[in-house]
Amino acid sequence: MSAERPDVGAECIVDLDHHSAEFNIDEIRVSADLRSRCPVAWNTRYGGFWMVTGYAAVERVARNGETFAHRFDPEPDDGIDYLGEVGIPRPDGLPPLGIGEVDGPYHAALRRVLNPFFTRQAVNALRPFVKETVSWFIDQKIADGTIDLVTDFASPVPAIVTMKLMGLPHDDWRLWSDFFHDTIAYPEGSERHLKALEASPAMWEKLISFAHGRRLEPTEDLTSLLVLLEVDGEPLDDGKILSILTNLVGGGVDTTTSLTAWSLLLLAERPELRATLIEHPELTSSAADEFLRYTSVNQTLARTVTKDVMLDGHKLRRNDRVLISWLAANHDEHEFDRADELILDRSPNRHLAFGLGPHRCIGAHLAKTMFEELLRGVLERLPDYRIDVDQVEEYLGNPSVTGIVTMPATFTPGRVLDVPRPY
Predict the structure, then answer these.
(1) What is the predicted pLDDT for the residue at 1?
(2) What residues contact 133, with CB distance under 8 A and at least 6 apart?
(3) The whole model's pTM is what?
(4) Angle at CA 298, nearest 5°, toward 285 and 261?
(5) Fold of 1-94+299-352
(6) Architecture label for domain 103-297+359-423
(7) Cis check: omega of the bond before 95, within 30 degrees of 0
(8) For residue 95, what pLDDT is reported?
(9) Beta strands 68-69; 393-394: pairing state
(10) Distance CA 229, CA 212 (A)
(11) 3-state SS string over the chain?
(12) What pLDDT score was predicted for residue 8?
């Protein structure tokens, strides 16, 4: 963190606690006000850091990984304090966050081995499995007339698809889903968060043991290719393997769930949009991009400045911290007409929900495909669903990720299709 306040005008100095629940609840409005005054502002909290809320500035930071590093490194050799994408100190020896907090040749090598699993062709081949899984979970509840759209639906489907991709036992989906949801959805110090932290050593050991087994008996899943990868002639050690698996499993079981939950809630609040999607299913793909833009469930990420640079007229110094807001950029009225409206057929839609540059989300195609099938499944088979808004429980106090923990709903009971269990 930077201790010295930069030479900027008073309109560009703010005092915002982006970790607070109050900020997260009103983040779009607060960010819009800040963006109108100063798209790149200096926040005096947490030792001082830059807050970037304008689309153009966020885009520039995201594309320039050499100047704005993703890297987390507790023992750097260049004197820069790399705090990674989270932007807070962590215990010495904690490995970087998978492929997200590494740069350079190592990052490129990881992307090369992982990319084949996430191409459009690979994801299209996986779509029938996703569709069957969606149908099976709807079958389990459709005769009842009640469903929790998160715990009974939006959570298990992405989790099972992630298990399939990684090669993990499909029946372990709830174990991993609950673990990552509890570490992300609940504030530090809460009972659920503390229990998740207590369970983490056993969960990490479970992942490493699985990886060891795949190293001895590899198959064709993603984990097998990962444990056989060599960088500079050396296999990845357990720390690197663990960090990558954690990143992939955690991302797979959480973000698409959050996107689906928020989107279904928004459609419940806007019946005219729901009716449009039911009548025009061909809009599903463009609607998916619009929900990605509008909700931006991965809201913020941090960067480390590696050399002095000018950004939006301000001089950022080597070792400064930068917080970029995907959510704010995706609501920038200079980039998006009627930015605060949901426009299902918005085009063009250059949203930043998946990031940009070499670190753009590797699972973007898969996430969008899962979301499209989840959305279509509900609109086709539970079209009149009604959400009990008083029972909706949101994530609390997480500045990086937003989501919904539980979302009970009712609907007119329908016909069970007797879809075979896909896993």
Answers:
(1) 45
(2) 156, 157, 160, 161, 422, 423
(3) 0.95
(4) 60
(5) 3.30.43
(6) Orthogonal Bundle (1.10)
(7) no
(8) 58
(9) unpaired
(10) 13
(11) CCCCCCCCCHHHEECCCCCCHHHHHCHHHHHHHHHHHCCEEEECHHHCEEEECCHHHHHHHHHCCCCEECCEECCCCCCCCEECCCCCCCCCCCCCCCCCCCCHHHHHHHHHHHHHHCCHHHHHHHHHHHHHHHHHHHHCCCCCCEEECHHHHHCHHHHHHHHHHHCCCHHHHHHHHHHHHHHHHCCCCCHHHHHHHHHHHHHHHHHHHHHHHHHHCCCCCHHHHHHHCEECCEECCHHHHHHHHHHHHHHHHHHHHHHHHHHHHHHHHCHHHHHHHHHCHHHHHHHHHHHHHHHCCECEEEEEECCCEEECCEEECCCCEEEEEHHHHCCCCCCCCCCCCCCCCCCCCCCCCCCCHHHCCCCHHHHHHHHHHHHHHHHHHCCCCEECHHHCEECCCCCCECCEEECEEECCCCCCCCCCCCC
(12) 87
Q: What is the pLDDT of residue 94?
A: 53
In the numeric block, the tokens 């050799």 are attached to 77
Residue 193's pLDDT is what? Answer: 84
Stretch 297-316: mean pLDDT? 95
Q: How confident is the model at residue 197 (pLDDT cuts 50, 70, 90)?
A: confident
- Give φ, ψ of 277 to 5 degrees: -70, -35
Query: Span 63-83, mean pLDDT?
Result: 91
Domain-by-domain residue ranges, the chain?
A: 1-94+299-352, 103-297+359-423
> Over pLDDT 90: what percentage of the chain?
78
Confidence at 248, pLDDT banded by 50, 70, 90:
very high
